[in-house]
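Model: You mentioned two targets. I'll fold them one after the other.
Researcher: Yes, keep them separate.
Model: Target one:
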Amino acid sequence: MVSAKALVKRFGDFEAVRGVDVHVRQGEAFGFLGPNGAGKSSTMRMIACVSPRTDGDLSVLGMDPDLAGPRIRARLGVVPQQDNLDNELTVRQNLQVYGRYFGLSRAHVRAKAEELMEFAQLTERADQEVEPLSGGMKRRLTIARSLVNDPELLLLDEPTTGLDPQARHLLWDRLFRLKSRGVTLIITTHYMDEAEQLCDRLVVMDGGRIVAEGSPAELIARHSTREVLELRFPPGEQQAAVAGVEDLADRVEVLPDRILLYTAAGETALEQAHARGVRPVSSLVRRSTLEDVFLRLTGRTLVD
């Protein structure tokens, strides 16, 4: 569905994407993870055929975006990071008007709007204006609108940012349904649990480059340990405890209020720490997550 080799995007002297290789298979959910400024959005915009590449090879749906941009865009669905709905129009009108942009007949878009409102659980709101809808409803409408042309490839930029847990899980359910129908998904997200739930494969980007690629499980196995032991201390006291635990784990990370021990057996490490007289305020043994991988690969320092 998408094939990129040595893909580059420059803005003047700034190189936002630095030689990226990406291959997205039909029917999979593929994710881009990375901190702000990593090059995710620039890559997505090139795939969406709205930003020309500076260098490298790119094929979308078997076509070159430089030569077949309009034909590719006609077969794509795009969910932008910020909702850009027509607030003065109703839910139904948003879908029908957008469908007409693709040259679909009035009869077709009327029927399609009914189908998509049911899919997005918005049928009861069909004739209400968009402005007073909740954030979750607007996000579902934005996704529904992106499906009006029955796209083969759906691009979603931060699809659940700002939503409450119930709304996020409802959107996840709808994306699972789309994938089961054979729609290929490309997703950027800052939510690690979302990436683990939705993505078959993903890449982690940092500084315009891909620093890791694989399934969520593969990345965790490759870059972290099976479990993480968190030992919490009063501020300033954690450093004194490091010497008593640093040999109990494959890797030890010291944070302002706790020590993280990356180990294959968290409970065993906790017992050994207690036996050595280490007394944290609280402790937690948990499985390693994609967030542990992400922070190890891209760092904990905020990048503006």
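Model: Target two:
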Amino acid sequence: MSDSGRSPLLSWTVIAPAIALVLLVLTWGRHIDPVLAVVIAAVLAAAVLAAVHHAEVVAHRVGEPFGSLVLAVAVTVIEVALIVTLMISGGDDSASLARDTVFAAVMITTNGIVGISLLVGALRYGMALFNSEGTGAALATVTALSALSLALPTFTTSAPGPEFSSTQLTFAALASLVLYLLFVSTQAGRHRDFFLPVAPPEAPEQPEAHAAPASLKAAVISLGLLLVALVDVVGLAKVESHTIEDAVAAVGFPPSFVGVVIALLVLAPETLAAVRAARRHRVQISLNLAYGSAMASIGLTIPAIAVATIWLKGPLLLGLGPTQLVLLGLTVVVSILTVVPGRATRLQGGVHLVLLAAFLFLAINP
């Protein structure tokens, strides 16, 4: 929030996205030098923090679970646009880009964001509490989407390799979109209360929970600045990708690890927002963000890629390899055991973070 007597236009949450947007325009398509890469990284971090601030303003105005939905969908729509753009311009080297990016997003959200949120909530309050009905429904949807779009192509036989035939891809795209829309209608409709925060009566009062929401005008401005900040985050991550590629090659990591780094950058706003919610005893909001982002990554990316195949040439590899399938299966099993009780200790948070560490380690050392 800006200081009293200072114009809101001079707030860092307004200035940071504006500077980042200017920098994005000036550097787009260029191969940047190391000094400029450091500057871009600093501006990128400021844009992430600004995105989190504006997301919280919008969320407080529209209420939950709509606030989490706004941030998850906004990030994913921009991420999908970036994936499609890179695939159209990337040639044969981008055949597995959608798969690698979506799988990285699923692992980061379901293990990274979930794990750190549960750990923060449990360390701060002794136990992280959430609604098992809503979280279980979200996990079931993520599981179905992952299996239909990422696991099945490994085993189908209509097309060579881990890819769908055109008919199968059309079915997967429609199924993904239907599942995602069905979940959103459930989350925002009759069963909205399944996705609201759970807190015991003795929980300490949180001033933010009782603060007056922003005015409609302020919320609309924050929504616009949120979208600008997210464009900045994704765009600057793309600008940094060449530097990241050089750094990854210099340390001897596989080229596919570049996609993991970019996914980490793109998901940074949601990660910070989830941690802040967990610190306020609102772990349910953190889980809404995590599973909502995983869901949107698959439910919006696969249909977009299916449409893009009209222009794309070459194979579209969607099926996961054996190591990835094991990690996905292990994540699903552990997630079910975490979600069913409706509460978690720091142990569950630690288990999910170890699974994330395993994913990152095996991405570096396949």
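Researcher: Noted. Anything on target two?
Model: The two ends are 45 Å apart (CA to CA).
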